[in-house]
User: Fold these one by one.
Assistant:
Number 1:
Amino acid sequence: MTRIYLKNYCVLGKQSGDSITIGPMTAVDCRAQRVPAAYNQVMHISGVYRAPAGANAGNCREGTYDRRQYWAWLVNDDEVLLCTTVFRNS
């Protein structure tokens, strides 16, 4: 099974220190006030790209002055770069 990720959707994440793992098959309302006990973050999908060689979170930046914290994963047999940020309900 292959998951299709879409920009501006949200998935569940579990943060421990600076590290975050995602529930790769989860989906959640970005503005959810509560998440299941196995998770503690709502991750906003900021981009879904064809993965360049050596892809990492630095490839997620949307310009020179973009200072947001990104977390990135290679998915779908390392062909897709999934870029996320922690969703801030503002």
Number 2:
Amino acid sequence: MASEDVKATESAVSTIVNLAEEAKLAREGVKAPSYDVLSICKSLVAGGVAGGVSRTAVAPLERLKILLQVQNPHNIKYNGTVQGLKYIWGTEGFRGLFKGNGANCARIVPNSAVKFFSYEQASKGIMYLYQQHTGNEDAQLTPLLRLGAGACAGIIAMSATYPMDMARGRLTVQTERSPYQYKGMFHALSTVLREEGPRALYKGWLPSVIGVIPYVGLNFAAYESLKDWLIKSKPFGLVEDSELSVMTRLACGAAAGNCWTNCCLPS
């Protein structure tokens, strides 16, 4: 009985210590490890799903764009968006509109997951440093700081998933005369790794990263700034509370993407 009492006492003391430690972490604003893991998983899954859904939604346009870029100028099959989509539908059916989308999603889903998670963490880190620097605990990120957080996210996401982007590029440009005939993305990755070594997986990494810095940075900066403006100014009665509707968020994302296209891409 004595030993059972001792065990019960030790268990009670251990429980009290754990509760006290959790309370201390809560007061200091530090999340418990289990909550951190759950939060990370949620962020990664949300970013991955968002990337896959968005890529699938525009897959027909993405395929048509590539076909327009590589078609023979002496044998025009695709002449404009509407005609091109109709031609693909008529010759290849519904599945033809989404050909190659699986390979695209295999690259975009992890890229989007890492990108959104990295932006979230970079924003928190930059905000903490900014608040410490200004001495204002209520300070929020400026558009320039959001651009910096977005650029960090773009670099991390591009670096983490660049081998897939490289493999997609080789699959896109390969012909019957290519030295290697890749059957798919994972076959391309394994072949490059075996025949050319690990460094070959990152050929062209630097120009890709340089290009993605303004792209992702401006996207996130424009999107977050537009959201804040809508919530604070409530123009035309579009926003009634502190939460934006799904359609409003989609409109913000579209506007942010259009801002990047108009500002940074050549006409």
Number 3:
Amino acid sequence: MGARALPEAMIFDVDGTLFRTETLLLPAYYTTFDRLRSEGLFRGETPPEHYIISGLGMLLEEIWEQVLPDYGRDVRRRADELLLKLQLDGLKLGEGELYEGVEETLRSLRERGVRLFTASNGLEAYVKGVIQHQGLEPLFEPEGLYSAGEYRTRSKVDLVRLLVEKHGLKNVWMVGDRSSDVEAGKENGLFVVGCDYAGFRKPHELEGADVRIASFAELLELVDESRETSTA
């Protein structure tokens, strides 16, 4: 386990970490394929939902290669456009849920002086839409919502490196539920907290994390333990 110093900042993945993605994603996913069929771009049954769920945490291009391996770029691009629009429409209507304790825990972390950021492989409009429509935006740092879609990074390692360097951060925790989060944290020398509650990660996905949590609220216990260690 890495050294657990009191964090100056935390960087959060969004889907499967803060946001219960499937509550928004799956209705939009099925509607997307209804639209693709009606537009004559897709035939047959909607691909099983595990293809889109298992792709969470990947870059969007990789997700659509997995969901639509037999279709070209134009169809994948149209599917991407439809899915994003449907999810943003859903957010505006109040659809989608945070994991239990997320808002309260983030608020408590801010009160403890921890600076909060996101780093997601999703599109800018989606990442910012989730944070804004869930009422979390005031808790995060100004210009602290980072996404691969906005910064055109090819990996979360690069995105997190950019974030850390741009904000001059020294002691940072990376918090996420996928192997890409563990890799991004470790490659940038961060303490990594693996979130073990989303339910759709792959076996051994969190190997390499410094610690795992079974609920989001456990972050406060880790921070308070670190505070005690730092002041001992």
Number 4:
Amino acid sequence: MPELQELFNRHRKYILFLLSFYVLGWGFTSYQSIFLGLILGTSVSLFSHWLIMRRTLRFGDAVVAGQKVRSLGTYSRMAGAAFVAIIAIEYPEYFHLYSAIIGLMTIYIVIMIDYFIQQLQPHK
């Protein structure tokens, strides 16, 4: 599934670009807790996206080989989201809770925007 790897690489570039803006916002504005929450949530969101991509590749390989199929790591990704919420609640002076939650959702927004961009481009 090389197209899945291409898709993930494109999403990773977009997220790293966003993270660089968040770091600049954290460094140069007075909204440091908001940007730190966005950085935390988006970082875990990128990790979750990497995890589901990697497990999807393993899932496909196992199906082709006729082996037993394991889960796609739902509990791992939910634990990551819970981790972000716990950190943001425990340290509200550093992390803004709502921006951390928005950061967790960032990958889904990036996926949707990337989908629409790919649909507008002429196919190769």
